[in-house]
Amino acid sequence: MHADSASPDVIVLLAPLSGPIVPVTEVPDPAFAQKMVGDGIAIDPVSEVLLSPCEGTVTQLHSAGHAITIATPEGVDVLMHIGLETVLLKGKGFSPKAAVGDRVRPGDPLIAFDASYIAHHAASLLTLMLVVNQDRVAEYRPASGMAEAGRSPVLELVLNAAVQNGKDAPDDHFAAVASEPIVILNPAGLHARPAAVLVNTAKQFQSDLRIAKNGKSANAKSLVAIMTLAVKQHDSVILSASGPDASAALEALVPLISSGLGENLHTLPVKAAPVPSRRESSDPHLLLGVAASPGLVTGQIYQLRHAAISVEERGKGKEAENQALLAALSAAKGELAHLQNAMRQRADTDKAAIFAAHQELLEDPELLDAAAALIEQGKSAAFAWQASFTRQADALSGLNNELLAGRANDIRDIGRRVLLRLSGESPEKHEMPVNAILVAEDLTPSDTANLDKTRVAGFCTTAGSATSHASILARSLSIPAIAAIETRALDLPNGQSAVLDGEKGELRLSPSKEEVARIRRLQEEAAEARKIELAEAKQPAITKDGRQIKVVGNIGGAAEAEEIPSLGGEGVGLLRSEFLFLQRADAPDTDEQAAVYKTIAKTLGPDRDLVVRTLDVGGDKPLAYLPMAAEVNPFLGVRGIRLNLLGTDLFRSQVQAILSAAPFTRLHVMFPMVSTVEELRDARKIVEEEKRAQGVTALVQVGIMVEVPSAALLAENLAREADFFSIGTNDLTQYTLAIDRGHPRLAKMADALHPAVLRLIAETVKGAHAHGKWVGVCGGLAGEIPAVPVLLGLGVDELSVSVSAIPAVKAAVRRQQLTDCEQLAAEVLRMLTVSEVRARLAAFAQTNKEVDHV
Questions:
Q1: Which of 714, 717, 729, 620 is nearest to 675 (CA)?
Q2: Which residues form the catalytic set?
Q3: Which element (helix H / strand E) includes 110?
Q4: What is the H or E stretch that residue 299 is in?
Q5: Angle between helices 402-423 and 469-476 (to 10 degrees)
C-alpha cells in the first residue's frame, strides 16, 4: 500500500496488531535491538490475530508458526515475529491462517495466537515487524503511540533509487529469510576450523548467505570474512539467506552451527584466547617467550627478514590484470599441492591439512572480490591483491585473539606467495650458517615447512603463539621453537652464540663453553643412538631371551607406506583411511579408494601386513556429504563402527575397495570403536558377504580396535569372533578416565600409563591369548620408549608406531629381557598412581642402561 498515488517511492505498512508501538532499539534482545535481523518496529500486542500490513505474497512461514514473511510487489521482504524466544514453544499457542504462496491484502489474517499461553511460556510477547532486505530501503519513518490492527499506519518505507527506477526487477527477486538468534557454543568461538566447516557447507547452496553479529555481517561463504567477526563462545549470531534455495540453506546450516560445526562442545568453556602478555627477563643474557616446540639446541643467531615486494599501482587494462591474477592464483595452488605432498612424506598428514586450508583461502570470495574491485578501478593485479590480503590480515591481527592472529599469518603467507608470482620476483634465498637459530618477527607455515634442517637448529619469533600453524609444523618436524619472544631478540647480531630451550621458552645468550659442551654431548649421544638404530633397523625386534615382537607403522597415506621397508617396518599396523574421505565435497567412490589401497599393498608386498581401519568419523568430526543430527555429546554418539553400520552403502563401498588389495599383501580389516559383540558380528557379516561377492580367496583377517572399556572387559568373548585386537590407547585412556584428551586443563592427566588403563590392556591380552588371537597396540603409548618394557611384559604381540619411530622401538625391544619385563608388568599393575608407574619405568630404564654399559 502506497502513501498516495503520487508517491510510488514510499510504502506504508499498517499495524499487524493492536497495542503500543515500541522502537526496535528498545526490544530486550540484542539480535533484534541491534538490527541484526532487520529494521522496523515492535508492538506490545493487545490483540491475538496477526494481520497482513500490506499487499504481497507469503514467502516464508516458520515451522513453529511464530514468524511469517511477506514480499511486497516492490520486492521488500517484511518479516513479522510474534514474541521473543517463541521458537522454543515448537508451535504450541500458534495457529497459522495463511500458507506459503498465498497472496494477501492489508488486514488479511496471517497467524492467530494464544497471548496468555505465550506470555507465560516465552521471554516476551513483543512482536517485531522488520524489513529483512534492508538494502532496498533508503529511509525508515516509524510511527509512535498506540496502533490499531489493520488501520493505523505504523511504518513508512522510502525505497532506494534502484528500486524506484525498476532496475531491480521483482520478478527475479528471492525473498530473504533469517534464522532465530543462534548462540555459539564452540569453546573458542568461530575460529578457523569450525568456520571452514560452515564455509564449505554454505558453498553448496546458490543463495547469498550472511552471518551477522552485533550489527556487523559477513559473507558466510568466506572464511576470512567470518573470522573478522571475531565470534566468541556464547555470542549470538543471525544467519540470513536470499536466493532460490534460501530456506534449504537455513535448514541445513542452522542446526550445523547450533551443534558446534563438528567441534566437541563439552570441553571446558573458555573465552577466546587473547594474545598472551609477553614474558620479560631482567637478565640481559636471557630472553623469554612461549614454549612452541620442545628441544634443546645450541647455535648462532641468524636474523631472517623478508624484503618488501614492490608493485606498480596502475594496471595495464582490466582484462590483462584479471588474467594475471588468475594465473598467479593457479600457480600458487600448484605450489601448495606440492607442499601438501612433501608434508605427508616427511611428517604428518594432519599437518598437510594446513596447506589444504591455504588452498581454500586462495578461493575465498572476500579476498578475491576486494582484489577484483580494485582491478575494476584500474589498479594492477599485484597492487589489488596486496591491498586485499593486507587489509584482511591486519583486521584479524587487530582482534586481540591468539587463534585469529595466527590465521592472519596464514593470509599473509598465501598473500606473499601469490604476490611473488605477480611481481615476477624470485623467492629469497638465505645463506644460513650451520646450527642457525633463526630470529624473525614471524614465520609463515611455508617458511617453516621449507626450513633446511641440516642448517637450522631452531627458531624464535616475536609474534605467533604455541597454537600458530608455524608452531604446529615445528613440532611435527622436531624443530625446537619459541614464539612471542621479547622484541629485543630482533636486535641481536648475526653470529651470536645462544642456547634455545623450546621446552621452557628460553633463549640464553653467550652460554659458557661448559654449557655448550654439555648440550652438544647430549645431542651427539642422541644422534649416535639414532645412527645405530637406523643401521640395525632391518634386524628383527627380538628380546634377549628370544621373544619376537612385530613392529609396524601407523600411516595416513601412500607416501608414508613407501618409507616403511627402508626403516625396518614389518608392515602397516594402522592405515587411517579417513584421509580419503576428509576435506572434500563428496564421498570417494569404490574405484578411487581401491586404487589407493592397492598402491599401498603393492608397496608393502606379500610378506608384510596391511591393517586398514574402516572409516572412523562421527559427530565430533563430521563429513560435509554425510549429514548427521546434532548430538549432545558426539564422543558418546554415532561414530566409528556405529556410523559404518548406519551408513551401510558407504561402508560396503569401502569394504569392497579394501578387499581389492587382498592379492597383493597380508590384508587385515579393522573396525573402530567396537563396544559390543553384536557390532562385530554385523560388521564382519558385511565383510564376509563382500568377500563371497568378489570371489576373494586370500586370507583376510578381521579384527577390532579396543578403544572403549567394554571391549577390553569383553575381550574373551570378542576374541571368539575376531581374528585380532589392536588397542587404541589414546581413546581407551580418554574413555577409561573420563577425560577429553583435548581438554585445556585436564589433558595432561589423560596418561595411558594410568594403572586402570594398564589393567584393561592386560585384560585384553588375556582374553585374546585364551583363544590364540594376537594383540597389537597402535596408540601413542606404543611409541613411548619407556613404555615398551611394560607392554612386552603384559604380553602384547605387536607395536604399531609412527613411521619415523620404528627403528627406535625395535632397538628398545632388543634391549629387553622378557622375564624382566613380565616381572615389571606385574609390579606396575599393583600400583595406584601414574607417578608411581612412571617412576618405576624410569628406574627400570636406568638399570637396563647400566647393564648395557657393563
A1: 714
A2: 469, 778
A3: strand 109-113
A4: strand 296-303
A5: 90
